[in-house]
Write a structure and sequence with these properties.
Belongs to the Nudix hydrolase family. Keywords: Hydrolase. InterPro entries: Nudix_hydrolase (IPR020476), NUDIX_hydrolase-like_dom_sf (IPR015797), NUDIX_hydrolase_CS (IPR020084), NUDIX_hydrolase_dom (IPR000086). The chain is an alpha+beta fold. The chain contains 2 helices and 9 strands; from the N terminus they run βββββαβββαβ. Helices cover 16% and strands 43% of the residues. The strands form 2 sheets. Strands 5-1-7-6-9 form a 5-stranded mixed beta sheet. Strands 2, 3, 4 and 8 form a 4-stranded antiparallel beta sheet that branches. A hairpin with an 8-residue loop joins β3 and β4. The longest helix has 13 residues.
Length: 161
């Protein structure tokens, strides 16, 4: 018997902020990356530009105000995630290199749609598929190669924690 796969399509913008060889990440409170490190960022509000969404999401999730330095490219990830009748998620992520303009890392205000429990710094050696989202793993790969792959990253075995 063939398993029926139904994809939820998620689209978002995500920022890479590096300081002293550490990446700023959030602790994810829900979704397929729950209880893992994830990049600050997220979905656009209606009528919002990519850049405006990037700056708003980064600040909401970390307390840090950013400047967007450049668009690094787009990656997509596919993985199992049972949610609202869907069996999988197809996550499309626009990556930006950002720099800190102000603000301080703070515990984010909790509201409908907020999925950050707070932010912190991690090194590449501290992350793995067990404790980080595919976005974080790909961010460290970009930091090493200065290039994003063209092919989708497919996780057939993904555990939502």
């Amino acid at each position: 018997m063939t398993q029926f796969i139904k994809y939820h399509q998620a689209f978002g913008v995500y920022g890479i902020l590096l300081e002293n060889n550490k990446l700023l990440v959030i602790n994810k409170s829900r979704g397929p990356y729950k209880n893992r490190y994830d990049l600050p960022g997220g979905s656009l509000e209606k009528g919002e530009s990519l850049a405006d969404a990037m700056q708003r999401e980064f600040n909401e999730e970390t307390g840090v105000n950013i400047e967007i330095l450049r668009n690094l490219g787009v990656m997509d990830f596919m993985l199992p995630w049972k949610w609202k009748g869907y069996t999988h998620v197809h996550h499309i992520a626009v990556y930006y290199l950002v720099s800190k303009m102000g603000g301080e890392i703070s515990v984010p205000e909790q509201f409908e749609g907020q999925d950050s429990l707070g932010a912190g710094w991690v090194t590449e050696q501290e992350v793995s598929q067990d404790n980080a989202s595919p976005l974080v793993l790909k961010a460290f790969e970009w930091l090493n190669k200065k290039d994003l792959d063209v092919e989708s990253v497919v996780y057939n075995q993904w555990e939502v924690k």
